[in-house]
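Lecture 7 notes: from sequence to structure.
We start with the chain below.
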Amino acid sequence: MVELKARYGCAIVGATLGARGALVYCEGEFIESPAFEVPGGCRDTTGAGDAFHAGFIYGMLRDEDLESCMKLGNAVAALKCRALGARAALPTAGELKEFLQVI
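Predicted structure tokens for the same chain:
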């Protein structure tokens, strides 16, 4: 990640780590964010990385801090894994809010 940041000049460099959550490198610091358990058990991980990115960007657009953006990304990815297919279980904003209140 350090090399990618240096090579491309990105402000934030990150990686999704599946069941281990996500990791970003920003301003000389590594920040980890754990994954969430999938409600009802994992049915399919297809599209989970894209779901993470959607949740992360949702947080950025809401002007959340980096840790909150990662948490949102992990939550959207976990909820997506509830059903088969890449989009079938993507959460609504209400489902996401409810999930985050329960955990």
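Points to note: The mean pLDDT is 96. The radius of gyration is 14 Å.
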